[in-house]
């Protein structure tokens, strides 16, 4: 609900902010889907059916067979914990997206805080396991961070000037 005196109700939301919001909504939807899948993996019959279904594809493909053998299988009940973590991250990304879509300052600050806190992990992962997708995500998050910091500084400077 927007109050009449709320400055966010009178400012236009930049297209770039809407684009970042869509990016956050997409990440939220993907993580929520992952959470559902992880929760389903807690059922031993699902894991058995999954390994049985993938078996024929792995036959004769040493790379795929090696990958399937290397996938860690936590004890029963652990997949649900991973699902809860994925759902928690999905919720954070959803809240960020809503705040950004509506042009709220708190959404910008939240996105700066969350994005800045995750960049060291992304750098570490890029160092340990470089890949074009990881680099792309790191660059995108870095660009989002820089853009939002510049936007917040400009709005602070404009607020101080009035």
Automatic annotation (TrEMBL):
It comes from Dokdonella koreensis DS-123. It holds the Pfam family DUF2127. This is Membrane protein. InterPro entries: DUF2127. The keyword Endoplasmic reticulum does not apply. The chain crosses the membrane at residues 20-41, 53-73, 79-99, 106-125, 131-152. The keyword Transmembrane helix applies. Keywords: Membrane, Transmembrane, Transmembrane helix. Signal peptide: none annotated.
